[in-house]
Specification:
It is a single chain. By secondary structure, this protein is mainly alpha-helical. It is 46% helix and 8% strand. It has ten helices and three strands. The two termini are 17 Å apart. The relative contact order is 0.16.
């Protein structure tokens, strides 16, 4: 996490952190965001995947979700990129992007079966594909089971319900459903205490109040902060 880079040392009042795995331009956006700024939509569109990667690495959940939403809206899922996007979504825990790919596959089943190789797709994502098929077959009338029909509920709605309950939102579809079900049962721990792998939507806490110097180099940057 980003805050861990600036843990205070007893014998030093200034901490220097070297960042080598995020480009300077992307890290500028990260810093601006965690200190209360907003990343312009045009920058989110232009650098969505890089911002997702950095926000995921440093647990900046809200920024990751914003960048994911923009990426999903701006990306046309096709036969040529469906599997790449699916594998990326699975690797980065991008439930919204995974849902978009699954919806595409469910809508184009025959063509996908002919043109796409699923040999590299992990077996556990097949459950998400089954959900997409099920949702496609359900009519609006058939889907009036109330607020607890989590199985075919869309990711955006699941995240909204989790956030309303104060639960974590950065997790897989299956984990979100499990967390919501657990939260509704008296005496059952929520996903914050039951070991489910989710992260709460928030900016960072524990960062230094002031970054006194940022040195941008070729492929790296150094942060000098007053602790």
């Amino acid at each position: 996490m980003l805050a861990s880079l600036f843990e205070s040392n007893e014998d030093r009042s200034v901490k220097v952190a070297s960042i080598t795995d995020v480009s300077p331009d992307i890290f500028r956006h990260i810093l601006f965001y965690v200190y209360g700024g907003r990343v312009p939509r045009e920058d989110l569109k232009a650098h969505a995947k890089s911002i997702i990667d950095a926000a995921d690495k440093y647990s900046i959940v809200n920024l990751k979700l914003e960048a994911e939403a923009v990426y999903v809206k701006e990306t046309d899922i096709t036969m040529n990129n469906a599997i790449d996007n699916l594998l990326y979504a699975d690797a980065k825990n991008l439930a919204l992007l995974k849902e978009a790919v699954m919806d595409f596959l469910a809508e184009n089943t025959e063509e996908a079966s002919e043109k796409i190789s699923f040999s590299d797709v992990p077996g556990h994502v097949m459950k998400d594909l089954m959900v997409a098929f099920s949702r496609k077959e359900k009519s609006k009338q058939d889907n009036q089971d109330g607020n607890n029909n989590f199985t075919i509920m869309r990711v955006s709605e699941l995240r909204k319900k989790l956030d309303e309950k104060g639960l974590n939102v950065d997790c897989s579809r299956e984990t979100m459903i499990e967390a919501l079900k657990s939260s509704g049962i008296p005496g059952t721990p929520s996903n914050e205490t039951s070991g489910l792998h989710c992260r709460r939507g928030s900016n960072m806490v524990g960062l230094p109040k002031e970054i006194s110097n940022v040195a941008f180099g070729s492929g790296f940057l150094m942060l000098k902060v007053q602790i």
